[in-house]
Amino acid sequence: MDMFEDAPPAPGNQPEYTVSELSGAVKRVIEGEFGLVRVRGEVGRVSRPASGHLYFDLKDDRAVIAAISWKGQVARMQVRPEEGMEVVATGRMTTFPGQSKYQLIVEDVAPAGAGALMAMLEKRRAALQAEGLFDPARKKSIPFLPGVIGVVTSPSGAVIRDILHRLRDRFPRPVLIWPVAVQGERCAPEVAAAIRGFNALPPGGPIPRPDLIIVARGGGSLEDLWGFNEEIVVRAAADSRIPLISAVGHETDTTLIDFAADLRAPTPTAAAELAVPVRLDLLATLDALAARLSRGVAVTVDRRGQRLRDLSRALPRPETLTGTAAQALDAASERLRGALGLMLTRKQGAFDARAARMQGSLLLTLVNRRRDGLEKRADALEARFLRGADARRARHEMWASRLAPALHRLIGESDRQIAKGRDRLALLSTRLDAVPARQVSTLRQRLDALDRTRLTLGYTETLKRGYAVVRGDGHVVTGKAAAERASVLEIEFSDGRLAVGGKGTVPPAPRRPRGEGEGGGQGSLF
Q1: CA atoms within 13 A on the CB side of 432
Q2: Residue 143: which residues within 8 A CB-CB, separation 6 or more?
Q3: Are strands 263-264 and 469-472 parallel, antiparallel or unpaired?
Q4: Does residue 260 sit in the same domain as residue 308?
Q5: For residue 511, what are the domain limits?
Q6: Is residue 181 part of a domain?
């Protein structure tokens, strides 16, 4: 009995599944049974990763279902689910085998009644108001008479015709229409893009920049006007640098863009009336002001003329005022004529006296005096020049005396460097002898190659190729003029030297300066 109790139970006839097979079977059953469902519940946790997909929970008081909307489905949603919002989600059921759970792929979300929409609208309004987007201090004044008006609305509705008709009746102005969808999923992004587009137009560009923007739409239900409650539209209206009038819906309709706009109009027609004044009223006012100005100018001129006439009666006659001055001027002119004649006579006498004293000897004396002055200045200038030359000569001699010791120091330093190089070379030679025979042979071959290169680059190898070195008076001659000045010329070939001129003897080779290479001045050949 113990032996039979320890044996494993016999396998039954139930089929065996792998984990993947079982997960696939469950997936097919759920997707086949719940192809398309509508689920009502409260939105729980909401997650928006960088991929653009939307993850959230649908829950009631007893259960929770995980929901997901792909990026393309999120873009088509007219209402985005927010935490705490009661919605009706439409989608299909599926499973996620990686976590052994089922989930709802949501294609569309609709609020569960107007109460949910109003609650969400009030929550969004409070959040935006807390940020200060509805602050009256942010609002800009509407221009009295805008040059260009930009209208953001549907181009096919009656709203744009009402606005244009009202502007034409009151005060015709150029109008730029930015066509947008005023309902549906494309409404919010297109309206926000239109407001930002008008603000992005450069002043003075090919397209005139509006001085005023009107965002208009006719009346409708709360769902129809929902695009103007979106946060993207409210922020675009609040950030607009151009004054903006909101004319969305009828008088009883209120959207969040009304709070962010600089001015709210109850209807699109009222927005046109608020945008421009009545041209006929302005013309009538202008005519009345012009008439008042004309009457004021006429009365002022008449009063000033009367005042001038009253003052002129107290003034004396002009001839009385100028008679005395004219008589004094006549008397002074008579005295001036006699004074000029007397002065001319005196000046003529003084000139004749001076001319009588002018003689040739005086001119010669003046010339001799000036010549002596010039000679003294010339002597002084020459002495100054000589002193300057002596100073410059002394300065040159001083620098020359400093140059010789410097040259000796340089030669001594070169000797020390050469001695140091010899010591280093001896050290390297000692180290080289310690290298194995194969390394010594390789270095010897490289040394032989370098020696051949040195011989090839030396001027003696150049002489072997048919060249010659010409020396004059012991110095290398490189030109005709230097050769003509030399008393003795010497030509050095590869096989000896030849003297030209003089007694034909070969003078001794000049001593090479210390530190100069074997080729002497032959370096100029290369």
Answers
A1: 12
A2: 211, 212, 243
A3: unpaired
A4: no
A5: 457-525
A6: yes
Q: Which two three-digit tokens encode residue 449?
A: 């190659």
Tally of structural domains, the chain: 4
pLDDT in tens, 116-134: 667 777 888 888 888 888 8
- Asked, for residue 191, whether it belongs to a domain, the answer is yes
What's the pTM value of the predicted model, to 2 decimals?
0.44
The terminus-to-terminus CA distance of the chain in angstroms comes to 117
Taking alpha carbons only, the member of 398, 163, 403 closest to residue 265 is 163
In the predicted model, is pLDDT for residue 521 greater than 70?
Answer: no
In 434-472, which ranges are continuous DSSP H helix? 437-457, 459-464
pLDDT at 438 over 50: yes
CA–centroid distance for 265 within its chain: 41
How does pLDDT run across 297-310, given as a tens digit for each residue? 999 999 999 988 88
pLDDT tens digits along 133-160: 888 898 999 999 999 999 999 988 888 9
Say yes or no: 128 and 241 in one domain: yes
* Residue 343 per-residue DSSP state: H
219: buried, middle or exposed (CB in 10 Å: 19+, 13-18, 0-12)? Answer: middle
216 plus 295 within the same structural domain: no
Inter-residue contact 54 to 69 (CB < 8 Å): yes
Yes or no: say if 181 and 154 are a contact pair by the CB < 8 Å rule: yes
